[in-house]
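forwarding from the other thread:

> can someone predict this with 2NL?

sure thing
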Amino acid sequence: MTGEWVARIEAARDLQSLELERVAALGKQGAITGLLKTLGGMTPEERQVEGPRIHSLRETVTEAIAARKSALETAELDRKLATETLDMSLPVSAGEQGSIHPVSQVMDELAEIFADLGFSVATGPEIEDDWHNFTALNIPESHPARAMHDTFYFGADKDGDGKRMLLRTHTSPVQIRAMQAQKPPLRIIAPGRTYRSDSDATHTPMFHQVEGLVIDRGIHLGHLKWTLETFLKAFFERDDIVLRLRPSYFPFTEPSAEVDVGYTIENGRRVVGGSDGWMEVLGSGMVHPRVLEACGLDPNEWQGFAFGSGIDRLAMLKYGMDDLRAFFDGDLRWLRHYGFSSLDVPTLSGGVGA
Ligand code: 2NL
């Protein structure tokens, strides 16, 4: 009896037939289960003889099933390992690869360079109220600068002062919000989208701006000039960067200065570095006391400098692009031509200290 069952179990060629044998022997209606049931009808003498035999049969068969199961599973695994090969050294197919837009690339570079100087990146809403975009920046209602900004206004949406909401014309309101929310000292850059109703070969209604702001005690124009010089050297990856601060006017800074950088002509192209000529790259100045006051800061205790520049223009200058409108055409050929890989970032600044 035992030998018969063990032979049947060992003959099972796969897990399915083994399961059939298990049910036939040990299942509810199984033969060995049936034998166990007969114990109840036996005399004590019969049971003393048959009991151990039947129990030992069940034990042997249970063990044989477990052993066969494990052997079949091992054989199955061995078969798979022998027949199903997986070449882990095969290169992955590249698929459709995107690329980083020059504007994003430059924003990343700005964040990297200014992080080395202790600046963090601040962001804020693109739909602004009149106060944060104009009034707090010392641009009152009647100020001609409001007209100069060619602002996009919303029709129905009004702010708490009953004024129409607008698309921010610069990222300055981000810095206003930062001054209101944080106690100085403060070192931030605010990169992002800005909007003005202006469209020609060198202007798009949506463009990208970066502004920077430092607020601390005893801040002066020397800090401003050193910071901008250090930034421009890191960004254009050249040591021969020459700066010229030209007196100018912004309502939110006093004094104000336009920052020109020296350029040379290389292969018929303007290249930043040297000083064969000058071109404007930034606007800057010392934060106007009225702006500090509007943000709840005492101008006798806190001073600061601020600057602003167009990211699109910075990208064009650094990477030798000559058509601003291509930035927004969504032409994949152009994007691929200038495209920056998301894995390899060859043009990322080596950092301020490098
Ligand atoms: C330009 C000029 C500038 C600022 C932006 C600023 C911000 C605050 C306070 C004071 Cl919160 N100033 N920003 C200052 C000077 C120039 O930008 O030509 N932008 C493209």
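The pocket of 2NL is lined by residues 172, 175-176, 209, 211, 213, 250, 252-253, 283-285, 287, 291, 306-310 (CB under 6 Å). thats all i got for now
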